[in-house]
């Protein structure tokens, strides 16, 4: 189950990241051409680019958990046994789930409150709630990713930091 769900989420995140990156890049390029080539500008371009980058950040948070590239302090991992190291990963994932739970709760709370007020964006005049929706969705993705981390930490045998570094070195060569 985890494998299939993981592949679907990987695909959706990749598509979303490419879409948001493409939107930001293309609109920024068009805005530069308009500004310097035609001495004009698109009044909505900056807003679209900002919202695209914000959405990329929330999707990227989930991708960062999946690939294990978030900033971390590994000093303690170097000094403890592999069994304790496993528990450190599980505790960190549980704390991540707690944070993601706050994102889900407050993200959807913000979405529904803003939707009820009918607030619109400044330039595009679209419902502002749409641009708050990625907060809650990102929380759900983060919870799924952290559950995957717990599953991996629990089912795979613990390795020492030296073994982990050797495996990373072998990947690079």
Automatic annotation (TrEMBL):
Coarse class of the primary localization is membrane
Q: What molecular function does GO assign, one term?
A: transmembrane transporter activity
TM ranges are 15-36, 48-67, 87-108, 129-148
Q: Return the Pfam families for the record.
A: DctQ
Q: Where does the protein end up? A: Cell inner membrane
A GO cellular component annotation here is: plasma membrane
The biological process GO terms on file are: C4-dicarboxylate transport
Q: How does it sit in the membrane?
A: Multi-pass membrane protein
What are the UniProt keywords, alphabetically? Cell inner membrane, Cell membrane, Membrane, Transmembrane, Transmembrane helix, Transport
Transmembrane helix as UniProt keyword: yes
Residue span(s) of domain Tripartite ATP-independent periplasmic transporters DctQ component: 25-153
InterPro entries, A to Z: DctQ (IPR055348), TRAP_DctQ (IPR007387)
- The reply on keyword Transmembrane is yes
Q: Could you tell me what this protein does?
A: Part of the tripartite ATP-independent periplasmic (TRAP) transport system.
Query: In which family does this protein belong, per the annotation?
Result: Belongs to the TRAP transporter small permease family.
Assembly with partners or alone: The complex comprises the extracytoplasmic solute receptor protein and the two transmembrane proteins.
- The name under which this protein is listed is TRAP transporter small permease protein
Which source organism does the UniProt entry give? Answer: Halomonas campaniensis
């Amino acid at each position: 189950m985890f494998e299939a769900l993981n592949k679907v989420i990987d695909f959706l995140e990749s598509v979303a990241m490419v879409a948001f990156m493409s939107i930001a890049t293309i609109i920024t390029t068009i805005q530069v051409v308009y500004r310097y080539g035609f001495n004009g500008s698109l009044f909505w371009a900056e807003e679209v680019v900002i919202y695209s980058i914000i959405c990329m950040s929330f999707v990227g948070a989930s991708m960062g958990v999946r690939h294990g590239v978030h900033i971390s302090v590994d000093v303690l991992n170097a000094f403890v046994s592999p069994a304790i190291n496993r528990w450190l990963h599980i505790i960190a994932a549980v704390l991540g789930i707690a944070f993601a739970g706050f994102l889900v709760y407050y993200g959807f709370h913000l979405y529904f409150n803003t939707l009820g007020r009918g607030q619109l964006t400044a330039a595009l005049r679209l419902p502002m709630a749409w641009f708050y929706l990625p907060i809650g969705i990102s929380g759900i993705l983060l919870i799924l990713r952290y559950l995957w981390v717990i599953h991996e930490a629990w089912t795979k045998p613990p390795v020492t930091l030296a073994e982990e570094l050797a495996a990373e070195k072998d990947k690079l060569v």
